[in-house]
Design a protein that fits this description.
Blueprint lengths: L4 E3 L3 H8 L14 E4 L4 E7 L5 E8 L1 E6 L6 E7 L1 E3 L10 H6 L1 E6 L1 E6 L5 E7 L5 E10 L10 E9 L3 H4 L6 E2 L1 E2 L4 H6 L2 H5 L10 E7 L8
Parallel strand pairs: 4-12, 7-12
Antiparallel strand pairs: 1-2, 1-9, 3-4, 5-6, 8-11, 9-10, 10-15, 11-12, 11-14, 12-13
């Protein structure tokens, strides 16, 4: 499970990473982000209607309407920011997005907390803080995360069983990190081909960048 990650890559670096022409960058003037939380915007690479890649900004977390248990009236929706690998092909909440709308979520690290009062935040990276991509899916929503918000596009990241490094901190889940050689297959492949990529990233290619209390953003 992941509720916090960072993407400190510049737009130029992301375009280089994806071999993307400047005109396919729809991010505007996006700043590097040391902390991205659910319900907040983040950059993703997706295929447009013409099957061409583009960098766009979306909200992190599929929108799930909620009602008050006391009154039965609508309350602020939940942002479902993680999609389990063992549910994504069968759950109606995820299935269509997995089959039709996969995306890449660029990142430089992600965070898992261990313990309480105080929690210790552990930031994981790949080859230090080299850029990498989570496996993602996206969809449109008729409303946003707050009252009166208009339609927005949202994304969620796939999770799988943890590797040995992450398991010490979070024994249940970890985000699916894609090998760069698999990016095209994730975006363009069949659902069956994409499903084969839902596996733990090798622990020996990862490291804990830093750990400590009050580290709710990627360390400088």
């Amino acid at each position: 499970m992941c509720n916090l990650y960072a993407n400190t890559s510049t737009q130029d670096l992301m375009r280089q990473l994806f071999e993307l022409p400047r005109e396919r960058d729809r991010l505007g003037n996006a700043e590097p982000r040391r902390a991205i939380f659910p319900k907040y915007p983040g950059p993703v690479l997706r295929l447009d209607a013409a099957e061409e890649p583009e960098l766009v900004e979306m909200g992190w977390g599929f929108i799930l309407p909620q009602k008050s248990k006391k009154t039965g009236k609508p309350i602020l929706p939940k942002a479902v920011n993680n999609a389990r690998d063992d549910k994504v092909q069968t759950s109606r909440f995820w299935k269509a997005s997995f089959e039709e709308r996969r995306c890449l979520i660029p990142a430089t690290s992600f965070c898992e907390a261990k313990g309480r009062t105080p929690a210790v935040y552990h930031w994981f990276g790949v080859d230090g803080r080299s850029p990498f991509c989570f496996a993602g899916i996206w969809r449109e929503s008729k409303s946003g995360y707050g009252k009166g918000d208009g339609a927005i596009e949202t994304y969620s990241m796939l999770t799988t069983t943890p590797n040995a490094l992450v398991k010490e901190i979070h024994p249940d889940r970890m985000p699916v990190i894609l090998d760069q050689a698999d990016w095209t297959a994730w975006l363009n492949g069949t659902p069956e081909e994409a499903a084969k990529l839902l596996r733990p990233f090798p622990a020996d290619l990862m490291e804990i960048i830093e750990a400590g209390e009050d580290l709710k953003s990627e360390p400088a």
